[in-house]
Amino acid sequence: MVVSGNDRERIMNGFQIDNELLRQWRRLALIHFPTLCQPRSAHSHKGTFGTLGIVGGAEGMAGSITLAGMAALHCGCGKVWLGFHQPALPIPLLFQQPEIMLSTANRLLQRSDITAWVIGCGLGTETSALTKLTECLQQKSVVPMLLDADALNLVAQQPALLSSRQNQQDIILTPHLGEAARLLHCTIGEIQNNRYQAVRCLAEKYGAWVVLKGHQSLIASPNGQVQQNETGNAGLATAGSGDVLAGIIGSLLAQRIPPQQAVYAGVWLHGAAADILAASEIGPIGLCAGEIAAAVRWLRNRLTEPV
Ligand SMILES: NC(=O)C1=CN([C@@H]2O[C@H](COP(=O)(O)OP(=O)(O)OC[C@H]3O[C@@H](n4cnc5c(N)ncnc54)[C@H](O)[C@@H]3O)[C@@H](O)[C@H]2O)[C@@H](O)CC1
Ligand SMILES: Nc1ncnc2c1ncn2[C@@H]1O[C@H](COP(=O)(O)OP(=O)(O)O)[C@@H](O)[C@H]1O
Ligand SMILES: [Mg+2]
């Protein structure tokens, strides 16, 4: 039996997707995130696809920042720097992937070649983390920035942190329900019962893009327009899948895709990747961050092929 290119891809990667669904996804992507559908120029170089700086990885949480960095590379940015907030030396070496550069957070913040930042993966919430976040927000006010996890918990403690930045409209916040409850000083149940109102309130309060994560994540623009994401499944209910999302959106921002496209495309790709895995013979239970990132890479490549 002659194995066609696509079948070969499917068999090699274990990914399975109905061809009609893939055509539908390609048409949707061409309309809503056309940048994702452009094949790479033969003259590209790693600078073409930007450099993502990720600050986080406090003691015991090196996995979080490493998952975000690995996902960012799988989603196509040119370079990734990980800035560990409290480098316990052996940990970064344990996690080091040859394609990812490692640094301390202080050293990374001195770099001027970063085209987007992700702050918060495993940052921790003690005073030194707060100082680090404040520096990031004040020093890096002209580069798009995604705040996740502990960065959100710090903003919940000091809401004025975000207003110290010149332009909040190129900031993306990605709280899960627990982090959103902290940001709004309410209960998780109240958020669950009023998701649209909660995500709109967060976007208007901080003047930023907000992804309220969970089943059918909601995305609010800084002026309060809300859209619901239709991809994804409970296979994502595993530690690290939010760090992967932060890396995916951060990667698209680093590739100079505007925040309003990067946020919708990133959430959609992340959920669609999980749907591809759930439809494969593996099934949804036990998805790990690396598989989600690999499926995002596989899907990104399919989107550049003709419908
Ligand atoms: N491998 C690693 O190093 C990992 C590190 N992580 C880091 O750990 C720190 C704490 O993050 P966590 O999110 O784990 O801890 P949190 O304390 O922020 O959130 C966990 C709690 O939030 C609530 N919650 C979250 N989503 C909910 C939902 N959809 N519905 C209802 N309740 C919900 C639940 O009470 C849950 O126990 C962050 O900095 C994060 O980046 C995590 O990302 C997991 C992986
Ligand atoms: N039942 C579900 N259906 C769809 N997506 C889910 C579900 N549960 C979790 N997710 C997604 O998984 C991710 C979880 O993020 P988060 O809780 O921050 O994970 P972590 O911090 O452990 O990396 C979010 O993108 C969320 O939308
Ligand atoms: Mg998280």
Query: What is the strand tally?
Result: 9
CATH superfamily: Ribokinase
Largest sheet properties: 9 strands, mixed
Helix/strand order? HHEHEHEHEHEHHEHHHEEEHHH
What is the total number of structural domains? 1
Q: What is the arithmetic mean of pLDDT?
A: 90
Q: Strands of the largest sheet, in order across it?
A: 3-2-1-4-5-6-7-8-9
How helix-rich are the residues, as a percent range? 40-55%
Instruction: Give me the CATH architecture, please.
Output: 3-Layer(aba) Sandwich
Rg to the nearest angstrom? 18 Å
Residues in β-strands, percent = 5-15%
CATH topology: UDP-N-acetylmuramoyl-L-alanine:D-glutamate ligase
Number of helices: 14
Class based on secondary structure composition and strand pairing:
alpha/beta
Q: Which ligands occur here? A: ligand NAX, adenosine-5'-diphosphate, magnesium ion
- Global shape: globular
CATH class: Alpha Beta
> What are the segments in which pLDDT stays under 50 over at least 5 consecutive residues?
1-5, 7-12
How does the SSE layout of this entry go?
Layout: H1 5-13, H2 19-32, E1 51-56, H3 62-74, E2 79-84, H4 90-95, E3 100-104, H5 105-109, E4 116-119, H6 127-139, E5 145-147, H7 150-157, H8 160-163, E6 171-173, H9 177-184, H10 188-193, H11 195-206, E7 209-212, E8 218-220, E9 226-228, H12 241-254, H13 259-279, H14 289-303
Parallel strand pairs: 1-2, 1-4, 2-3, 4-5, 5-6, 6-7
Antiparallel strand pairs: 7-8, 8-9
Helix pairs in contact: 3-12, 3-14, 7-9, 12-13, 12-14, 13-14
Keywords: ATP-binding, Lyase, NAD, NADP, Nucleotide-binding
GO molecular function: ADP-dependent NAD(P)H-hydrate dehydratase activity; ATP binding; NAD(P)HX epimerase activity
Organism: Snodgrassella communis
